[in-house]
Design goal:
There is one protein chain. This protein is an alpha+beta fold. It contains 17 helices and 16 strands. The protein has two domains: about 270 residues, Butyryl-CoA Dehydrogenase, subunit A, domain 2 (Beta Barrel); about 180 residues, Butyryl-CoA Dehydrogenase, subunit A, domain 3 (Up-down Bundle), CATH 1.20.140. It has a six-stranded mixed beta sheet with strand order 2-1-10-11-7-6, with no helix packed on it. A four-stranded mixed beta sheet has the order 5-8-9-12. Strand 15 and strand 16 form a beta hairpin. Helix 4 packs across helix 7, helix 4 runs antiparallel to helix 8 and helix 7 runs antiparallel to helix 8. The longest helix is centred in the middle third of the chain and has 38 residues. The radius of gyration is 24 Å and the shape is globular.
Length: about 500
């Protein structure tokens, strides 16, 4: 397994076509906007060698008969699912931000199952190809960026009606395919070695060109990465005090595919439209349960910062402060409980792996779309108005008024700098760059709230519940009314 130093060195060997704010970046590892996210991912390598955390960060792989980083592992027991969630919480707590490896891990596990099941039913040969990629990723200890989300364009239209808004096959050759399109919101792609592409929705029979899954190096010819702007103040980049999270950060990018050629050996779905939705379901289940690990880990940091600012302010014994901290803990542990429960009720798949309970995974993620918002509200409440009116570090060091400012921003304990640093951390997690991971990404990652509600309705087994209630009440069960299509603006709801 790679060390953190090995990982960083491996990134320098790539030849990325990466743009940050319109400028080509020659060495992403050292770029001030990218370096924090590199350091974040490096922690997943460092902790795999830490004796205290080795058990949850590594696992024995039967595919290469060696220990591997759990982020490249295939879940083969309920214990694997539990340790995955625990690993994610440790990393979230260590970095205070998104650590960018979960999508690739969950994509690996989804594709393992779908390629196996496709081969069983269709007599295709995708699973052996996939196993070769898996062994390669495990031996080389690679970062795989899972890429599922298409631009989508006009949401009323299907892929075939607006092909430019979906990644698709544009040419089929003897030993390869050529793809074109884009994938959006790609977490950690600039820090990755390979991209693992999947279709992002169910597809009709005539939409075979969009039913494609493959793996490709992140620096393959025809791939361009456009770094996503984070809601942070550029003047704070590189400023130790004002940065808030002075060491770690996350990153997102748009990945543009301009006629990228992919060898068939790296293709794991090609035209099997009926299998696009099962792949999405496998991935969504695993990834929605993942939020029960990473977000509670981030929440641990936010709770700690809120408690620390209360102590620096001298308000930690006030009853309302203690009550707000308890509420933050309650919300945080409820999210974590959902992730653990989804794994504890996991079941064995036809491929011999373990899949989380899909209903509980959706409940877990649905809680995550709500609870971090309330936690950040409570943290902002405890931090006070200075959270948004704190002068810059340069003002605190100004020769004319700096000392006076320090006097006025000092609390009951600690120094002025202590208070500034903690407030900047809370600001970073509630309003700044890390707020993307704590709030917006909690809302939309792995599907926005309505996606979970749709699946919860499908998975709730209401007929069984109705029958049980009818039995207890002593009445006959009543079947639901037949579904009737709803038409709006001339478009029939799919």
């Amino acid at each position: 397994m790679k060390t953190a130093e090995d990982y960083v060195a491996s990134l320098r060997k790539r030849n990325l076509r990466l743009f940050v704010k319109g400028k080509r970046v020659d060495d992403p590892v050292d770029h001030p906007a990218v370096a924090p996210s590199v350091r974040t991912v490096a922690e997943s390598y460092r902790l795999a060698h830490d004796p205290e955390h080795r058990d949850v960060f590594t696992a024995h792989s039967r595919f290469i008969d060696d220990r591997v980083n759990r982020f490249t592992h295939i879940f083969e027991s309920q214990d694997d699912l539990r340790k995955k969630t625990e690993m994610q919480r440790v990393l979230g707590r260590t970095t205070g931000t998104c650590f960018q490896r979960c999508v690739g891990m969950d994509a690996l596990n989804a594709l393992f199952n779908v390629t196996f099941e496709m081969d069983e039913e269709l007599a295709t040969a995708y699973h052996p190809r996939f196993l070769e990629l898996l062994r390669f990723a495990q031996r080389e200890d690679l970062i795989l960026c899972g890429a599922m989300t298409d631009p989508k364009g006009d949401r009323r239209k299907a892929p075939a009606e607006q092909p430019d808004q979906y990644l698709r096959v544009v040419e089929r050759r003897a030993g390869s395919i050529v793809v074109r399109g884009a994938k959006m919101h790609q977490t950690g792609v600039a820090n990755s070695h390979w991209i693992l592409v999947m279709p992002g929705r169910s597809l009709a029979d005539h939409e075979g060109d969009f039913a494609v899954s493959f793996a490709v190096p992140v620096d393959a010819k025809g791939i361009t990465l456009v770094y996503g702007r984070q809601p942070s103040d550029d003047r704070r980049l590189g400023c130790d005090i004002d940065q808030g999270n002075a060491r770690y950060g996350g990153q997102e990018a748009v990945v543009i595919f301009e006629d990228v050629e992919v060898p068939l050996d790296h293709v794991f779905m090609l035209g099997e439209t009926a299998w696009a939705n099962p792949l999405v379901e496998y991935f969504a289940g695993h990834h929605r349960a993942s939020y029960g690990g990473c977000k509670p880990g981030n929440g641990d940091v936010l709770i700690g910062a809120a408690a620390l600012i209360a102590r620096l302010n001298g308000t930690e014994r006030a009853s309302h402060v203690r009550d707000k901290l308890v509420e933050m803990v309650h919300l945080n542990e409820t999210m974590h409980a959902g992730g653990l429960a989804a794994g504890a009720r996991g079941h064995r798949t036809p491929a011999g792996t373990y899949m989380v309970d899909p209903l509980l995974a959706n409940v877990c993620k649905h809680n995550v779309t709500r609870f971090p918002y309330e936690m950040t509200r409570l943290a902002e409440d405890l931090a006070g108005g200075l959270l948004v009116s704190m002068p810059a570090a340069e003002d605190l060091e100004h020769p004319e008024y700096g000392e006076l400012l320090k006097t006025y921003v000092t609390g009951a304990r600690g120094t002025a700098e202590d208070r500034v640093r903690v407030l900047r951390l809370i600001e970073n997690m509630t309003l700044g760059a890390t707020a993307v991971a704590i709030r917006t990404e909690s809302m939309h990652g792995a599907g926005s709230p309505q996606a979970q509600r749709v699946r919860m309705e499908a998975q709730a087994n209401l007929d069984e519940k109705v029958a049980n209630a009818a039995r207890i009440a002593g009445v006959a069960p009543v079947a639901p009314t037949a579904h009737r299509p709803v038409e709006a603006a001339g478009v029939t709801r799919r």
